[in-house]
Specification:
Layout: H1 7-22, H2 37-45, E1 63-66, E2 83-88, E3 102-105, H3 111-121, H4 130-141, H5 150-160, H6 169-178, H7 184-195
Parallel strand pairs: 1-2, 2-3
Helix pairs in contact: 1-3, 1-4, 2-6, 3-4, 3-5, 4-5
């Protein structure tokens, strides 16, 4: 996923690596930069140990991008010729940036929903740690379902048959991501402005 991923990108990447592993493929979820407040809160609340961020992706022969589809959100020297798949929900994308990639761009759902739909279609289930991460990502990215599509809602209900979130999770994650005390405001603005 992109530099300093949000919970949608984080959960979708973790889940897609798990999906590929369940299909007997070698996969690793990898992240660049730092985890933001909502990712850290979700990981702590769900007892999920996030992988250490990577220093570089250059050691990987093949890369799948999840929740990102344009070069502006990646490192300047990102090895784009190694990208073999792109899964994203954004309107802005450039298929020429990753010429080897298979593409799934779908604005009707969060990236977490797009990945969860793959489990559902194959009649597979996310693991006990991954299911709650996907639930959390869908709830957070849709602002607690204020912007959710029918697909987001349907996948959330499907995931909720096997997984759940702590009762105070939604309130807690929005509080965590809204905490801009001390240096957090400057860091948040810097990260947001780097994307533009």
């Amino acid at each position: 996923t992109y530099l300093n991923p949000d919970l949608d990108g984080f959960a979708a990447a973790v889940a897609y690596a798990e999906f590929l592993k369940q299909k007997q493929k070698v996969a690793q979820a990898g992240f660049l930069g730092r985890y933001n407040a909502e990712v850290l809160f979700a990981a702590q609340s769900l007892n999920f140990n996030p992988p250490s961020p990577l220093e570089s992706v250059k050691a990987f022969d093949e890369i799948v991008l999840v929740d990102v589809s344009d070069l502006k959100r990646l490192e300047p020297d990102f090895p784009r010729e190694r990208v073999v798949e792109v899964i994203d929900h954004r309107e802005v994308f450039d298929t020429t940036a990753f010429p080897r990639a298979q593409w799934q761009i779908d604005r009707e759902a969060t990236s977490a929903t797009l990945v969860a739909e793959r489990f559902r279609k194959e009649e597979m289930k996310p693991g006990p740690a991954t299911g709650p991460l996907l639930l959390a990502a869908i709830a957070c990215h849709t602002l607690n379902f204020q912007t959710a599509s029918e697909r987001d809602k349907s996948v959330f209900q499907w995931l909720a048959t096997e997984s759940s979130l702590p009762s105070d999770f939604i309130r807690g994650v929005f509080t965590a991501k809204s905490d801009l005390e001390g240096e957090k405001l400057g860091q948040t603005l810097k990260r947001r402005l780097q994307v533009v």
